[in-house]
Amino acid sequence: MAGTRSSARLANGSSPNSSQSNAASTPGRAGSKRKSEATTGSKAKRGKKGSEKQQKTIEETLVTKDEDDVMEDQKPTDGTSTEPKLGPGMDESGIDELDPKAEADTTKEKEQKIEKIEIDQNVAPADEQANSTDAQKEEIGNTNSNGETSTMNDTGKLEPAKGEQTEHENTKTIEGNAVEKSSQREASTPSSILEKGIIYFFFRGRVNIDDPSNVDDLARSYLVLRPLPHGAKLGDGPIGDDGNNRILALPKKVLPVSPQDRFMVFVEQAKSTMEDIKKNHLTSSDYDTKTAGTRHTPAATPVAEGVYAITTTGRESHLAYIVTIPSELSEVQRDVGLSERGSFVTSIKNPQYPGPANTNLPQGPEFPQEFLDEFRSLRWMPLQPKFLDYKNCQILLIGSGTSDLSKATDQSGGDAKTNEDTPLEEMEKLEHEDEIRVEHLKGDDSVFEDLALNSKEYSKIPTTW
At residue 13, what are phi and psi to the nearest 5 degrees? Predict the structure, then answer.
């Protein structure tokens, strides 16, 4: 068959190459052929349910001015046939042999128009570009070990995939607050820490004694607890006030030191702002009596600041602390029972049973029934932080007899996980962060800024009596 086609071409007096060149150089016929093929393809699809129109290529949609002119010349004007007659310079297909220079000009013009159309199609409208950018945001990114892909945010910054840990992505800082919420810290904080936060120690002198000279001149001591979120870390600045503060009163004036020291404390006010605690419990006041005249109650004096944790070891609960202010304890702090590090065994008293006569309060705590049910028939149970949110809740503090926190932070009876820090490691982290925060504020005087206290109205942290 191939030989037959070659013989036919030779009989017609044209070579295969010249025939192909002539066919390619005649835009009128080429355009007509593509139009016919497009029409045939459309008819072939007609009748098929759900068929879609076939998209044409750029070359198929391109019709130049020269092609329009050729097709217009081929239209019949007098009803005669449009089939061209053979003449000089024509082959049997009726196609003129174009001048090589004219052919080159026509080809160049076609290439320029094709290039222009391609450029126009590459420049998408603004809304299409926006959609394209959104698609890129969803596709661009890294895939973590769980198969989750990081995405690009609206500012063009690549956001890590869920579960990826970076230095800053998992930390949220509340404006005007040194407390930073960290998902990484949340994961590493041990479950045996029931609560952590900042603790302040105060004492108040007896009536009309503004400057106590020893422990005997004290009327009462206080502990102020400021809980932090479980996964919180400390940055710069004062601690924000979330209204979840508690003040605990210690009638014995000093903290228990040895296991033989068993002192009762009670919640004097709970779920309160520091402004309320300052106004109702820490400021000075004057009052008149019929026998002694005007009496003066001095303002409470801050003794120390530190970090604390309420921990559980399974059968016991502990209140452990590490002092950060002052940097070195003096005579006053040691006389009231403070150490650089200390802890107490803690228990909650069942309000349904009477206590010692000298520790009874006029009114007990208003625990919900489900709280009371947890006591069963027990008079005491290990401390849980939720009980501290009720006024008049009574807690027994038992001295540990040592500044070693190993017993208070023991996890042998807990369900420690491999990715968790020990309670002591978490407390030491918090201690270090608080030391840096205090250093960036006003040193030992930062306690006044934390508690929104006016240093002119309150005595500075004492070092000697």
Answer: 80, 25
Longest dimension (CA), the chain: 145
Helix, strand, coil content of the chain in percent (nearest 5):
35, 25, 45
Strand, coil or helix: 190? coil
**CA count, 13 A, side-chain hemisphere, 368:** 6
Other CB atoms closer than 10 Å to residue 64's CB: what's the count? 15
190-216 burial, b at 16+ Cβ within 10 Å, e below that, comes to: bebbbbbbbbbbbbbbeeebeebeeee
Tokens of 206: 């007896």
pLDDT of residue 359: 80
Sign of the four-CA dihedral 228, 232, 237, 240: negative
Are residues 203 and 144 in contact, defined by beta-carbon separation less than 8 angstroms?
A: no
Predicted pLDDT of residue 309:
96
Instruction: Give phi and psi for 308, each to the nearest 5.
Output: -140, 165
Cα(122)–Cα(301) distance, integer angstroms: 75
HSE (side-chain half, CA atoms, 13 Å) at 75: 6
The torsion region of residue 314 among left (phi > 0), alpha (psi -120 to 50) and beta comes to: left
What 3-state DSSP class applies to 69?
helix
CA distances 449 to 238, 318, 329, 446, 458, Å, are: 6, 29, 21, 5, 12
What is the number of alpha carbons within 13 Å of residue 347 lying toward its C-beta? Answer: 16
Total residue count of the chain as it appears in this document: 465
Letter for the amino acid at 404?
Answer: D
Q: What pLDDT score does 237 carry?
A: 82
CB-facing half-sphere around the CA of 374: CA atoms within 13 A: 13
Chunked mean pLDDT (size 10), the chain, 465 residues: 45 45 44 46 45 52 48 48 48 47 54 55 49 47 48 50 45 65 89 95 93 92 94 87 94 93 95 92 90 90 94 92 92 94 95 84 93 94 97 95 80 62 91 86 64 61 80
pTM for the whole structure: 0.62
